[in-house]
Structures are given as C-alpha cells and as structure tokens.
C-alpha cells in the first residue's frame, strides 16, 4: 500500500520506495525503512498531507507520498 492511499489516523511501516531520487530526499527527512508513519491530516484541498515520522511532523506532497510503499499495521 502507498502512503498516499492512507486516511487520517491510519499508520504503516515504511517498506520501500518506488523512486530512487525521491527516496534519498525522504530518507534524509527520517522516512527510513522500518519507521512507523502516522497520517495526521490532509490540507483542505487534499495536498499536501501531514504525517508523523521519527517523532516529528512532516508535510509531503501527494506525489512524494505515492513513492513510499508501506506495510499497514
């Protein structure tokens, strides 16, 4: 399942990435394989989304979120 498919309140564990270039940027921001991600909320028009990862909040565009593959818990 992709991060962009989760609804607010749902969570998952980072499994892998679909875009190599984007994965470097995301890993620098704390989205490492094995990390728990919680979807907090969506912006009023649905983009970006706010997530909690590695103990802090992060905003991602839906395009960025769609490159993160999760194991849903």
Task: Summarize the topology.
Blueprint: E1 11-17, H1 20-28, E2 36-42, E3 49-53, E4 56-60, H2 62-65, E5 68-72
Antiparallel strand pairs: 1-2, 1-5, 2-3, 3-4
Keywords: Iron
Domain Ferrous iron transporter FeoA-like: 1-72
GO molecular function, one term: transition metal ion binding
Quick description:
The chain contains two helices and five strands, in the order βαβββαβ. The chain has helices at residues 20-28, 62-65, and strands spanning 11-17, 36-42, 49-53, 56-60, 68-72. A five-stranded antiparallel sheet has the order 4-3-2-1-5.
Overall description:
By secondary structure, the chain is an alpha+beta fold. It has a single domain (3-72), classed as Roll (SH3 type barrels), CATH 2.30.30.90. It contains 2 helices and 5 strands, in the order βαβββαβ. The chain has helices spanning 20-28, 62-65; strands spanning 11-17, 36-42, 49-53, 56-60, 68-72. Strands 4-3-2-1-5 form a 5-stranded antiparallel sheet. A hairpin with a 2-residue loop joins strand 3 (49-53) and strand 4 (56-60). The radius of gyration is 11 Å and the shape is globular. The model has no long low-confidence stretch (mean pLDDT 91). Keywords: Iron. This is Ferrous iron transport protein A. One of its GO terms (molecular function) is transition metal ion binding. It holds the Pfam family FeoA.
